[in-house]
Amino acid sequence: MDLCESGNLRRWWLFYFLPVFLLTNEVSLQETIEGFIGESAVLPCSSEEHPITIQDIEVLWRHNGKNVYEIINGQVSVEGQDPEYKNRTKSFPEEYLRGNFSIKLNNLQHTDAGNYKCYIMEESVIKREKNLLIKLLTKGA
């Protein structure tokens, strides 16, 4: 079967090259946050579009597939939060209407190093995706 037949070339291109484009785009948006073991770090995540109401907004924070933090309909939800992050995360509710959904991660651990993702969703549609890398440093280095 020829690739050009019945749109197969288009599907082949999308299948092989679109993920590469998305991956490249994702890496270019990554921001590095530096912190020290035992201290705190603020992980920024905001939307240029300020929500008129926060009732339809969902914000999901993820690290290695784990649920770090969730804001659902303007309320913090710790129901499905990974135990590793319990009582170590907080957000800034007074900033939600400004489109700021940053979180503060306290008492940084070795396991906190790595990639984080923040998804801002409105009516189940991802409006913004932010990639962060936490790099842990040694004091005096």
UniProtKB/TrEMBL annotation:
InterPro entries: Ig-like_dom, Ig-like_dom_sf, Ig-like_fold, Ig_sub, Ig_V-set, T-cell_Activation_Regulation. Its main location: membrane. The keyword Calcium does not apply. Residues 19-133 form the Ig-like domain. It comes from the Eukaryota. Residues 1-29 form the signal peptide. It is a single-pass type I membrane protein. Pfam families: V-set. It is found in: Cell membrane. The keyword RNA-binding does not apply. One of its GO terms (cellular component) is external side of plasma membrane. Keywords: Cell membrane, Disulfide bond, Glycoprotein, Immunoglobulin domain, Membrane, Receptor, Signal, Transmembrane, Transmembrane helix. This is Ig-like domain-containing protein. It comes from Cyprinus carpio. The lineage of its organism: Eukaryota, Metazoa, Chordata, Craniata, Vertebrata.
